[in-house]
């Protein structure tokens, strides 16, 4: 299977790169984080200046130009779509439906104080019960759905103060 990667350069230019394209790249490692690359008859000197494996970000110098690169795969995109990105849980102020479904149970009410990972509600989708847990400690500001409601993907369910 030929995996695809989404690459964002300097927060603007977006590219899709496959494993086959990566494997076909004419690159030679010249030292610990330095590479010599030939592409389209042109020669490039590349050096990895900095990297953050958890965030999948890299700073790369190519022919003395510095680029900030973000790389993500299909799993990273799914995790982002579901709202479970690493480090984002502390910034979440609202819970939206990760998929269309039916609200089976709501375990909190407005004004309740919740802790991280406390169950907030149960959403039935595709004949499976999904427990939606609190991404952070907080106080429930509003609840936009009620037991028995059919909800759409990304519909607002709960807001935090």
From TrEMBL:
PROSITE patterns named in the record: BIOTIN (PS00188), BIOTINYL_LIPOYL (PS50968)
Top-level taxonomic group: Bacteria
The entry's keywords: Biotin
Alphabetized InterPro entries for the sequence: Biotin_BS (IPR001882), Biotin_Carboxyl_Carrier/Decarb (IPR050709), Biotin_lipoyl (IPR000089), Single_hybrid_motif (IPR011053)
Domain Lipoyl-binding: 83-161
A Pfam family assignment: Biotin_lipoyl
Protein name as annotated: Acetyl-CoA carboxylase biotin carboxyl carrier protein subunit
SUPFAM superfamilies: Single hybrid motif
Keyword Ribonucleoprotein part of the UniProt annotation: no
Organism for this UniProt entry: Gelidibacter gilvus
């Amino acid at each position: 299977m030929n995996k695809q990667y989404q690459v964002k350069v300097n927060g603007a230019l977006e590219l899709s790169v496959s494993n086959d394209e990566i494997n076909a790249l004419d690159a030679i490692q010249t030292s610990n984080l330095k590479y010599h690359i030939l592409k389209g008859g042109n020669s490039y000197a590349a050096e990895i200046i900095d990297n953050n494996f958890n965030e999948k970000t890299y700073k790369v110098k190519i022919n003395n130009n510095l680029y900030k690169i973000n790389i993500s795969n299909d799993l990273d995109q799914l995790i982002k779509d579901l709202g479970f990105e690493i480090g984002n849980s502390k910034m979440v102020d609202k819970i939206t439906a990760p998929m269309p479904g039916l609200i089976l149970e709501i375990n909190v009410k407005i004004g309740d104080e919740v802790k991280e990972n406390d169950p907030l509600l149960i959403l039935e989708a595709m004949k499976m019960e999904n427990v939606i847990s609190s991404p952070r400690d907080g106080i429930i500001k509003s609840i936009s759905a009620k037991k028995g409601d059919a909800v759409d993907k990304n519909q607002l369910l709960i807001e935090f103060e």
